């Protein structure tokens, strides 16, 4: 019976992937190269562009580096 519960939980976690909506609010012009590269890595290439990303520790680390330039919401 416990294996059935574990399988159900695994299926739910895979189908309910957490995502975040990220919008570029301030330009990367005049910012250090690392911040510009982080914005590009997140897919934010133009002002007011919005992307939906998976909520992973790697993405959260990137968001923290440029939090002063972006707006983050749950998707």
Q: Topology as H/E string?
A: HEHEHE
The general outline is elongated
CATH topology: Ribosomal Protein L30, Chain: A
Total number of distinct structural domains: 1
Number of helices, where a helix is a run of at least 4 consecutive DSSP H or I residues = 3
In which order are the strands of the major sheet placed?
2-1-3
What is the structural class? alpha+beta
Model regions low in confidence, pLDDT < 50 over at least 5 residues: none
The CATH architecture classification is 2-Layer Sandwich
Cα(first) to Cα(last) distance is 34 Å
The CATH superfamily is Ribosomal protein L30/L7
Q: Could you give the count of β-strands?
A: 3
Average the pLDDT over all residues and give the rounded result.
Answer: 87
Report the portion of residues in β strands: 15-25%
Rg from Cα? 16 Å
Summarize the amount of helix as a percent range: 40-55%
Summarize the structure.
The protein is built from 3 helices and 3 strands. The chain has 75 residues and is of the alpha+beta class.
